[in-house]
Structure formats: structure tokens, C-alpha cells
Amino acid sequence: MGKTGKRNLDHIVLAVHDLDKAMRAIERKLGVKPIFGGYHKTFGTKNALVNLDQGVYLELLAADNSNTKIQPPRWMGVDAIEENKISRWAVKSEQLDYDSVILSTYDPKMGNILNGSRNTATGSLLKWQLIIPLPEPEVEIVPFIIDWSQSETHPHDELPDMGCSLVELYGMHPNPDQFREIFEKLEFKFRIEKADKIALRAVLKCPRGIIEI
Fold first, then answer.
1. What is the rounded distance in angstroms from the CA atom of residue 157 to the CA atom of residue 180?
2. Is pTM beyond 0.90 here?
3. Residue 194 belongs to what H/E stretch?
4. Distances (CA, A) of 75 to 13, 16, 18, 31, 35
5. Please, are residues 201 and 27 in contact by the beta-carbon 8 Å criterion?
6. How far, CA to CA in Å, does 163 sit from each of 37, 52, 68, 122, 160?
7. How far is CA 162 from CA 31, 60, 181, in A?
8. 3-class DSSP assignment, residue 115
9. How far apart are CA 94 and CA 189, in angstroms?
10. Rounded Cα–Cα distance for residues 29 and 25 (Å)
């Protein structure tokens, strides 16, 4: 199985308890208003987005409690978080079959590929294939991987310029060395600081200045 193409940062997931409250809090913190994205009907979640430039965006993700067909625990840690926090991050790739083997070697529960779609506010159809992120743990240092190559558009392209950009996304973990092998296999450089608590942190440059979330 050969490798082709590169993997690049796609988006950062900020899991939140209440989407409306989180959108207002982010607007106060960053100085930009997130734009409501839509509903993931097959996953029981809804989102709002902030443009971080260079094809990257911040996704505020919350449980869609009006969707009673999908029961907890829902994906990306939305039912595991104790407080609003970055719980996941995504890398874009066009080699999911190869990537799924890498992730399943790291964790046998990872590696399952699924199709997804939703309509944007402008009526465009977003289509993706992704290696499904798990409901737990609360924070996952290893990224999930997504392929937008069959989509009419990309979420970032639907967003206006918000004057925000990503300075750095990094991780914190008691044992950073345990991730060296998987990031080498993914050929993706990712800084992980040694810390008592597992966390993902993003440093953003926005109208309010340099902000870390």
C-alpha cells in the first residue's frame, strides 16, 4: 500500500456544552462572531465555525439534543467534557485507507472510515470521508483524518475573512514520547509538551490580539 500526497491541518474542534453560549463567549474572547454551520444528523451534533485562514477553521461543536435518534456518548468527546475545551483536531488527507491502518495500529478502536455530508447555509453540499473520531477520551492528542476531495466546497471556503489566524496548535501530555512513532508514520510535525494534564491548546491571532484557547 503506497503513500501519496501530504497531510495538512484541517480544523480544530472546540467541544462545548451549549453552542449559543459558546458562540457569544468566543465572540467576546476573539472579537469575531462564529457562524452557525449546521447539524450532523448521523452523529447528533451541531456546530459553528471561525475562519482561521490558510484553509483552517475552528469548529465549535455541541450535542444536538433535539436529535433523539443519536444517543450519548456522541463523537469527539462532546459528552465527555467537564468544561468547554479543545477535544479533537483534524488533518486533511486523500489516502484514508493508508491512514486508517496507521491509526488502528495506535488504537484498535480507531481506523473506521465513514462517509458524511451536510448542506451549508448557502446551499452547497459538503461531502467528506473521515476516519471516525471516538466519543472518548475527553481529549485525544492523535488527530482524526478527513478527505474533502469529493465535496463541492470546503467549510473554510464558505466563511468570510474574520481577521483570525492560527499561530500554533500544540498538545500537552504526561508522556509525550509515546506519540513519537505515530506522528513519524503520519509524517506530521506536532509539538507535545510534558504536562500533568492532557490538553490541546491553540494560539490564535485575532482582532483581540494573541489569544490562547
1. 33
2. yes
3. strand 192-194
4. 11, 12, 16, 28, 21
5. no
6. 19, 8, 37, 21, 9
7. 9, 15, 36
8. strand
9. 18
10. 6
Q: Which three cell numbers stand for residue 44?
A: 447528533
Mean pLDDT value of segment 21-44: 95
Question: Is 118 strand, coil or helix?
Answer: strand
**Element containing residue 45 per DSSP (H, E):** strand 45-51
The answer on pLDDT for 209 being more than 80 is yes
Whether the CA torsion 75, 76, 82, 85 is positive or negative: it is negative
Q: Give tens-digit pLDDT for 56-85.
A: 999 999 999 999 999 999 999 999 999 999
Q: How far is CA 200 from the centre of its chain?
A: 11
> In this structure, which amino acid lies at residue 212?
E
The mean pLDDT of 144-167, rounded to a whole number, is 93
Bridge partners (DSSP) listed for residue 204: 166, 211
Alpha-carbon gap, residue 73 to 77, rounded angstroms = 8
Which band of pLDDT confidence, cut at 50, 70 and 90, is reported for residue 2? very low
What are the φ/ψ torsions at residue 179 (nearest 5 degrees)?
A: -100, -5
Question: Cα–Cα distance between 32 and 162 in angstroms, integer?
Answer: 6
